[in-house]
Specification:
577 residues, alpha+beta, FAD/NAD(P)-binding domain, 3 domains, 7-stranded mixed sheet, 4-stranded antiparallel sheet, 17 helices, globular
């Protein structure tokens, strides 16, 4: 009798254990550069976060796809991206010849990058990581979402307040019901190869690939292959070969991935075979770190895919002339980038900001996107797709997800400045300024003031590229600051008519404006600022009311007393009074 009762009871317990639901504040599906950064920031923002990655590694494009030479954003050590850069550099520091300068091009072996990301995740409170964990279904649950994942071959339900799509191609958002720009569901991919130098006398020639045709690779003849290998080098005598990704990328329907992947792999194997046989580099063989049958990375490098219809859509003009547009998306920045895409003149492509609205899926509560699904045009995505840009953006995604979870609200009610403040708290950049280091005591004030547009970044040419500088010692022009002051400060019109400042805004003008705005007695304000000028504000210029005020002085004092960063803006960057 007892035995007959015990068996059903055990079956009930077994069934109940597998029917148990995981509850989390934020669920990130996809551990690519954007997804893993989003999960880290979300957890650091003190909300319970679950990161689910179907594959065995974290890092996506820069590890499982092998895109492990990262040139973009090396002058912008923003938050988690800067942390990753430092940890990789520290790991390889003992290797003779490894470039350890703070803004070096980051080079690493894919599995090392994946290990470093996992080690960071393992140290973050409130973050649970599940590798080799696919997902199968998504459905709406109030303002949140219910997702089924497969844990050890068994389905487990996850209830989450906020869902982050960290996949390369927006698969999670699509399953949740997101709409995409245009009708095309094609993706453009290429396959990277990681080669290793096995020594001068080694012969690592691979079998001739199926359907091999040398003609697509003939452009390599006459090239300086040694120099190309030097540029492609990664530690331990290895090379990241992506030379053909734009010439011979493969495009096809997402629904027919098997054929698309086969085509892309054969193109890359053909390049390797050509390098070994036609160009004489038999000593270079495919590295076996990925554990795949063909020794290629386990997943392709996705160059382009579909883009969701977001709350806003970022276009090329938001990069090339952000201050001239009716919308002021730079005011809503949650990440920065400086990657000039292939086909664009580097000297005409400045560093840029990525707006909050581009990650918000339109018409779906609490779904955020990263990677290639970002709400941007194809031209813009050619830059934002770079892993180092995605890692910077992912931090902003994580801060946004944490905001919704913490304040029990939805993506329809985002407060831009609170989210940006959280990003700044964790050393994320809002503005891609490179001449003011993070360790500078005025870094945050400058980031906040420039994020409002009260002062703007200044384009400077450096060689064949553009940088955005703050130029702290330059003088403030009245016409530069007047439009924004009139926009945010209701009494500014009266003040300008009364004071009639000259072309160069003086320190006296600034104190008069602060006095008028804060209703502080002018003499009391002057005596106070004289006292704290150097010890508190760490300003070095002479306290002379008649001289023109510098951009640094203006930023520090305006940030403290006028506090333009406190002004509410909507997702288009419009000031909401």
């Amino acid at each position: 009798m007892i035995k007959r009762l015990l068996i059903p009871l055990l079956c009930f317990v077994f069934t109940f254990s597998h029917a148990e639901t995981i509850k989390t504040d934020v669920l990130v599906i996809g551990g690519g550069a954007g997804g893993v950064s989003a999960a880290i920031q979300s957890a650091r923002s003190k909300v319970k976060t679950l990161l689910v990655e179907p594959g065995p590694w974290l890092g996506g494009s820069m590890t499982m796809s092998g895109m492990c030479v990262l040139e973009a954003n090396r002058n912008l050590p923003s938050g988690i991206w800067g942390e990753f850069h430092r940890k990789v550099t520290d790991y390889y520091r003992p290797r003779l010849g490894y470039d350890t300068t703070h803004n070096s091009i980051l080079r690493f072996e894919p599995y090392t990058g994946a290990d470093i990301l996992k080690n960071i995740c393992d140290t973050v409170k409130n973050l649970t990581l599940k590798l080799k964990t696919p997902w199968t279904s998504i459905k709406k649950d109030g303002t949140g979402w219910e997702i089924t994942i497969m844990v050890n071959g068994e389905p487990v339900k996850v209830d989450t307040k906020v869902l982050v799509d960290g996949t390369e191609t927006g698969e999670v958002a699509a399953k949740a019901g997101a709409k995409f720009e245009g009708d095309a569901i094609a993706e453009r991919i290429a396959w990277v190869a990681i080669l290793k130098d096995f020594g001068r006398n080694a012969d690592k020639t691979i079998p001739k690939p199926e359907g091999y045709d040398p003609s697509p690779y003939a452009w390599l003849k006459g090239k300086d292959i040694r120099q190309m290998l030097h540029v492609a080098s990664i530690p331990n005598d290895k090379y990241m070969i992506d030379w053909d990704k734009y010439n011979n990328s493969s495009t096809g329907a997402i629904s027919n991935r098997e054929e698309l992947y086969k085509k892309a792999k054969l193109r890359t194997l053909g390049l390797v075979y050509y390098l070994q046989t036609e160009l004489g580099y038999k000593n270079l063989g495919l590295d076996g770190q990925f554990g795949t049958p063909d020794n290629l990375p386990s997943v392709p490098l996705v160059l382009e895919s579909r883009h969701v219809k977001g709350a806003i859509r970022m276009v090329l003009d938001d990069i090339t002339k952000p201050y001239d547009r009716e919308s002021k998306l730079y005011r809503t920045s949650i990440g920065v980038g400086d990657a000039a895409p292939a086909g664009f003149q580097v000297e005409k492509f400045p560093p840029y900001t990525i707006p909050l609205g581009s990650i918000v899926v339109n018409d779906l509560d609490n779904v955020l996107v990263t990677e290639k699904a970002l709400s941007v045009t194809n031209e813009v995505s050619h830059s934002t797709m770079y892993p180092s840009v995605q890692m910077t953006l992912g931090q902003g995604v994580g801060a946004t997800a944490a905001y919704c979870a913490f304040f029990k609200t939805t993506t329809k009610h985002l407060r831009v400045r609170i989210i940006q403040g959280e990003i700044l708290d964790y050393k994320g950049y809002l503005v891609p300024i490179t001449d003011i280091a993070q360790k500078d005591p005025h870094w945050r004030a400058i980031q906040q003031v420039c994020a409002t547009g009260l002062l703007k970044g200044i384009q400077k040419t450096n060689g064949n590229s553009i940088e955005i500088h703050f130029e702290p010692n330059d003088i403030v022009n009245t016409e530069e600051i007047k439009p924004f002051l009139l926009e945010i400060y209701t009494r500014a019109f009266l003040w300008f008519n009364k004071e009639k400042p000259g072309d160069k805004f003086t320190l006296g003008n600034l104190l008069s404006l602060i006095s008028d705005y804060t209703l502080t007695d002018p003499k009391t304000l002057q005596l106070h600022l004289q006292k704290v000028w150097t010890p508190q504000f760490k300003l070095k210029g002479t306290f002379d009311l008649n001289r023109p005020v510098t951009r640094l002085e203006f930023a520090v004092l305006a940030n403290k007393y006028l506090n333009p960063f406190a002004k509410t803006v909507d997702l288009s960057g419009r000031v909401v009074n």
